[in-house]
């Protein structure tokens, strides 16, 4: 049951953190989750929601400050919902995420890794190279707002800058706001998709109505000034198209220098948001797989070949499977671009597997990188695949834990390694890597 906001005059002692970074206190024998509070702090609070078994609240004042509390690097922290942990030291953020992973593996999967991997870390500011920014003209402010939603709200936050976005975009939110406000059809722009490669920057402007030629020219001039590729995406079924540069080439690229590979991708393709962390992630995955030139490898949810191609450099053959034909086409494009021939790719819905030739083969090694829902539907086939080692890359520790339990308790594997990768610094989002070896 949810009630209206109720002010509390009493103080509370915070004794631990929840998995999403909220402080936990026991108030009148009831667990209360308090946003913005850290362990060992004494705070006053305001209850925002009451439930049968717990309450939710946020901090009003901090009476006793934790040594783990830091000054947030962003002036919009507390209003913008894009980041939730900037008040916490980076060391504490890592500790929270690593412990959350281990707790969920134990709770949901009834498994514990033999070795906890050191957390993978890279830059914590200016790291984000993919984002979807909301756009809204607010009459009361007489301003076009661009950015992320406010915390627990459908309204856009009024942002001047974003310190976690790549500076090429994060430091130019005001310029983007002024650009859109200058358009005749300014209320038609609904979103801006950001995609940044090693060098090139692309902005995809989603618009609800056709833009005038004058509006298009203003977008082109912005792209020329800041060296940003400009795309338009009208309402479907109209297709996305690039208006600057007028070269017809709708691709960006990033490299994996350790493997001497270059990946070509469309601005709307899925790629990892943190380039440096991705490079470390691929390197760690291959190290843990311990590939040999005799290995036949299966790469499930392979995307554009981010893991497939580096693995093919060390293995006999790699088969990449992905649910999107566009991604399969891009993976093939990248294999040809890098002159890698010992790979093949196929499209398959891995959430609802159906019979296909690759499903009746055996593989020495498997790499799996599923979406947040995990890989429950494909796991029953793992006994048939008979791999001696599996590296599981996860963006959701709860579904990783569930799948780990099945691999260990039903398919004869043991969990040899697990650890977090800080792909999304200053947020509660957790990416992890786990290794399963045949007993």
Characterise this structure.
There is one protein chain. It is built from 9 helices and 22 strands. It has helices at residues 90-108, 167-170, 173-181, 213-226, 275-289, 308-312, 325-337, 382-385, 397-410, and strands spanning 6-13, 16-17, 23-27, 30-35, 42-50, 54-64, 115-116, 130-138, 143-147, 189-196, 201-207, 229-233, 241-244, 252-256, 261-265, 296-300, 317-322, 343-347, 365-368, 389-394, 413-421, 431-438. Strands 7-21-22-20-19-16-17-18 form an 8-stranded mixed sheet, sandwiched between helices. Strand 5 (42-50) and strand 6 (54-64) form a beta hairpin.
- Rounded to the nearest angstrom, the distance between the terminal CA atoms is 47 Å
Dominant shape: flat
Describe the oligomeric state of these chains in a short phrase: single chain
Number of helices: 9
Describe the sheet with the most strands.
8 strands, mixed
Strand neighbour order, sheet with most strands: 7-21-22-20-19-16-17-18
Structure summary, number of beta strands: 22
Rg:
24 Å
Secondary structural class: alpha/beta
Average pLDDT, rounded to a whole number, is 95
Helix content: 10-25%
Spans where pLDDT lies below 50 across 5 or more residues? 1-7
What share of residues are in beta strands? 25-35%
Identify the notable features of this structure and list them briefly.
eight-stranded mixed beta sheet, flat, disordered N terminus, alpha/beta, 31% strand, six-stranded mixed beta sheet
